[in-house]
Design brief:
The chain has about 150 residues and is an alpha/beta fold. The chain has a single domain, classed as Rossmann fold. The chain is built from 6 helices and 6 strands. A 6-stranded mixed beta sheet has the order 2-1-3-4-5-6, sandwiched between helices. Helix 5 packs across helix 6. It is globular.
Length: about 150
């Protein structure tokens, strides 16, 4: 649906500084971010999360499944922040040479269906996936660390 306004406290914004640290990223990582910045996942978890650990953030204006792996190779991407459908778009692309030749080691996000999760890892290699769930206006966040 359309974006909806939600009050986000200063404390919650500051807590987003540690998001990538909680999922296993560090200042050595390059994070690929193609999520809208008007959404908490893109702005606070994505951009603010990169600031929090000192990581490089590759901002894409629009997600392109056909360009994704080339972008990852060109920019040295090691972490991909997704919303579940982005991974499905990648899995549904025609196979191409080089889609397993990348430095991506971590995909983090929410809404990834189990069948897409399995297909993603089988096709693109041993990428660690950390599924998260949290509400912009809520006070609880869950992480699936075990996969």
């Amino acid at each position: 649906g359309l974006p909806k306004a939600a009050r986000v406290s200063h404390l919650k914004s500051v807590m987003c500084l540690s998001f990538y640290e909680l999922v296993g990223a560090s200042s050595r990582d390059v994070v690929y971010l193609a999520l809208p910045l008007y959404h908490m996942a893109g702005s606070l978890l994505g951009v603010v999360g990169c600031l929090g650990i000192g990581a490089t953030c590759v901002l894409k204006e629009k997600f392109s499944a056909s360009q994704f792996w080339a972008d990852c190779r060109a920019e040295g991407v090691t972490v991909f922040q997704y919303i579940g459908e982005l991974c499905r778009y990648l899995v549904n692309q025609p196979q191409s040479p080089g889609e397993r030749q990348h430095g991506l080691r971590l995909a983090v996000g929410s809404g990834l269906r189990p069948d897409v999760w399995r297909s993603f890892q089988q096709r693109f290699g041993p990428v660690r996936i950390v599924e998260t769930y949290g509400m912009s206006e809520g006070n609880v966040t869950l992480f699936n660390y075990t996969g």
